[in-house]
Amino acid sequence: MTVKTVISSKTILITGATSGIGLALFNHYSTQGYYKVIACGRDAKKLALLSNRAYKTCLFDLNDADDIKQQLADIDDIDIVILNAGDCRYIDDAKHFDGQLFSDIISTNLSSLGWLLQYTLPKIKKGGQLVFVSSSATILPFPRSEAYGASKAGMDYLANSLRLDLLKENIDVTLVHPGFVKTPLTDKNDFTMPFLITSDEAAKRIISGVEKRKKYLHFPKRLTLLLKFFSLLPSSLWQAIIAKRDKT
What we know:
The chain is an alpha/beta fold. The protein is built from 8 helices and 10 strands. Helix 1 links the parallel strand 2 and strand 3. The chain is globular, with a radius of gyration of 18 Å. The N and C termini lie far apart (about 50 Å). Pfam families: adh_short. Keywords: Oxidoreductase.
């Protein structure tokens, strides 16, 4: 862990800060002088590149509870925690279900949140914020997304439930549903991603929503509102649309 002395008003902790949306969030917050940014990631080389601009860097694997505990041990008060880190892999053959892949994604995207919350929530100040970066994939079921979708749906429930229990602690919870965002993860996708936006644009929208203390963010709306509309249709109709798409 590296530490940099900065005089500032707010401390922000970001997981998955070395790439994609997390890196874009780090870049925006760290250039604003008003924030002390704690950058968390599992890639030592990439994290080292952020050390000059970060208040602290924390190196840990999401699936290593002891690692998380050790790296976050000497962090005191936090104003905003942004739980952004995660992985995306697909079930390519549902009939021959890949249980190990499913378990890995659930562990990385969902189970790890329990340890992160255990070691960050007690440090969030009264009036602080907790931000979950989920996915618009939870609005509607998609083919091959059994593992990723299930993990993010679990995150949604966790965020919405915590919002109720944290009212008495005066801690706001924001749930974020991004659409397709260009990141190293989505670069691996082999299908069309409509209304794709940059990580920088996604970060700006998240920062704006956090500043307004919104409970729920979804973007770009031309995609998410379309998905919400489709979710109101009879499931048989949506399945027919998906089946037709898979044949093209």
